[in-house]
Amino acid sequence: MSLVSITAGPYQFTARFEDAAAPKTCAGFRQLLPYQERIIHVRWSGEACWIPLGDLDLGLGFENHTSYPAPGQILLYPGGISETEILLAYGGVQFASKMGQLAGNHFLTVIEGNEHLASLGKLVLWSGAQDIVFSSRP
Prior knowledge:
- By secondary structure, the protein is mainly beta.
- 14% of the residues lie in helices and 46% in strands.
- The model has no long low-confidence stretch (mean pLDDT 96).
């Protein structure tokens, strides 16, 4: 099992790479590790936070894609009709942008720290952007 540590605001999570279902997306994201950015609350999708990546092109297509991630599922939208982005679901989500419904590649699943997902979402919603760091775990 291939794991990644995530620190978002004051919270710690462990996530599992979904290598079997999204091998290209996992490989592309691994090349970015360690990855540090700011996470903000979504505007159209519901209970989720996101990292806008603008026109970053990781050379990915769609694999293991969904518009309805469960809490703790992390998606990477590879770009197309909207900008490239990472989305972290903490509650009910219908992934969308101002362009309409989107589907992102489910490539990580939170397996430890799930009890803090809603708290992170509320913190980002009410207090603004938070630092987030993804790091490899042995």
